[in-house]
Design brief:
The longest helix has 20 residues. An eight-stranded mixed sheet has the order 1-3-4-2-5-10-6-9, with helices on both faces. The chain has a two-stranded antiparallel ribbon with strand order 7-8. The protein starts with a strand and ends in a 6-residue tail after the last helix. It is α/β, with parallel strands linked by helices. Helix 2 packs across helix 4 and helix 3 crosses helix 6.
Length: 235
Amino acid sequence: MTARHAITGPIGLVTGSRPFAGLPTNPAELVLPHLDGLVVHGVTIVAKATPVSRAGLPQHLPELVAQYRPAFVLALGLALGAPTVRIETIAVNAMHFGIPDNEGARPLGGEPIEPDGPPARMATWDADAVVAAILDDGIPAKTSFHAGTHLCNLTLYTYLGALAAEGLSSPCGFLHLPYLPEQIVWMMRQQSGQAGSAMAASMELPSMALETQIRAVKAALGVMARQAVDPLTPR
């Protein structure tokens, strides 16, 4: 992997969600500057932050696909309390927001993302190969068969539909990241003025350093770029 400034050849689109749920940061956004402009197996990475908006994403994501016609799409999000990196494989046509989006929208009860869309869409990346590559780098990761019912799921569902609408067979997947250690510290301090107090004990949640998360995403990019450039090459 080498850094490049000019976009030439195929493009790999990587997007990450902005902060939500009252948090000041989101690792899905913080990793993006470390990826933008990289060239991975001949594919140039374009990294973009995306809004936490039920109303905005169904328009914004297809516009990105139409603009870049990417060789692959990797979307990133934060999984609250997840102990490992999660490699998502299924997006369902349903919304049930435990937490409102950044505009206050909170659809409930399985409201469809696309009323006329299929019940589910399958991610098209090689999820097992992505998990294996991240594990090979010494980072815990696992395959997940449910991207939830919040905006991460909506993002994967929308991207898969947008690629199909553009006639693209590009690999597409969603990678969920854990909390950052500094996010846990921030929440502890919000809950209690003293991070070591009993009041903060319930905030002893798993976390992963940003540097480690960047390595995990780069490992995923290597697999996706190889899959996009030569789908028949063993990964």
